[in-house]
Amino acid sequence: MSKGTVVLAYSGGLDTSCILVWLKEQGYDVITYLANIGQDEDFEAARKKAESLGAKKVFIEDLRAEFVEDFIWPAVQANAVYEDRYLMGTAVARPCIGRRQVEIARREGAQFVSHGATGKGNDQIRFELTCYALYPEVKIIAPWRIPEFYNRFRGRIDLMEYAQKHGIPVPVTPRAPWSMDANLMHISYESGILEDPKSHAPDDLYLMTKNPEDSPSTPDLLEIEFKNGVPVKVTNVKEGISKDSPLDIFSYLNEIGGKHGVGRIDIVENRFIGMKSRGIYETPGGTILLKAHLDIETFTMDKEVRRIKQGLGIRFSELVYNGFWYSPECDFVRHCIAKSQENVEGKVQLSVFKGHVYILGRESPKSLYNEELVSMDVQGDYDPCDASGFIRINAVRLREHHRLQGLSSTKQ
Questions:
Q1: Would you say the pTM of this structure is higher than 0.85?
Q2: Where in the chain do CATH 3.40.50.620 domains reside?
Q3: Which of 64, 94, 278, 362 is catalytic?
Q4: CATH class, range 180-363
Q5: Of residues 70, 106, 179, 242, which has the active-site annotation?
Q6: Among positive and negative, which fits the CA dihedral 279, 334, 105, 111?
Q7: pLDDT in tens, 213-261
Q8: What is the pLDDT of residues 339-366, one digit of tens each?
Q9: What superfamily in CATH does domain 5-175 come from?
Q10: Does 156 qualify as catalytic in the annotation?
């Protein structure tokens, strides 16, 4: 008798194929779910593999458009960067994948969901917080946290032996000595030989971006048009190519950024679970958009609003990285950031060349830039004498502090 139905987040790889068969051994009916979020995958081969291994149903869901519009665009509006460097391509994708997994589980009457995330990483938290938020009654089966599973499968050799025994097709190509996660926004590389933080990444590691040294010797000139803080059009100025749907815009920016080696980082970051990890990431389109959005935002947003919004962007990044996309506080922060973007509108011209993005110019109908006011050649509606009082008022606090603390005569 079946213990119930479980929806398994399935990749078609060795780990989740073994998990599929293991769940069946435990007495569950298994529905597999594979999300297309822009990774290079043979989805039909994965479908056939899951069916041959006994999946009750197989769902392959194309989530690329909603990934861009519902998840990447809010991250662009927020200038979302974790710990000053990481654009969070994996963290932003997990709530997108988890949302559809829960929808399928509810629709199919499944009481359980399962995933192949390890017990040491962030992804287990991101997936499960999403599932509990959107399907509070759900039960989660996390094999890599179940002793009978992880004691049985201590490494890849154990998985391969189990696969051969149960007729699971095993990979015929040698496995890269690191783990990789790919989607439309980025590719991440970690583990294996990369766990030594001083070891340099091999030249053949990067799949999404060219080595900047080997990139074209002429730049691509782009114009990106924003409305409400999100791109609505990208134009290659020299080639006359334009894209105006969210998915097409982001895919094209990936293509141009990848061609010029933009968006590579090699960092050590702080996982939510409490350990440091080394990750190598390539985020070409996201890096171009971050630079362009920062520029148009500063051009059109009030200084004090931007100061508050900057803090909200940092908070948003931490919440998303830690898996709290569907929390009430993240919902609140997203609404505040969206409100701040109402006047973030206009066009940014930039050059993409040899691993770098160079801002060339910008224009906006909602610009707060007053050329006459700021000009050194025209006085405009500004009296320089007013600056004297402004400076003296700001000096009151400093003078009193140093006078009362007895520091005014000390060498600083």
A1: yes
A2: 5-175
A3: 94
A4: alpha beta
A5: 179
A6: positive
A7: 999 999 999 999 999 999 999 999 999 999 999 999 999 999 999 999 9
A8: 999 999 999 999 999 999 999 999 999 9
A9: HUPs (3.40.50.620)
A10: no
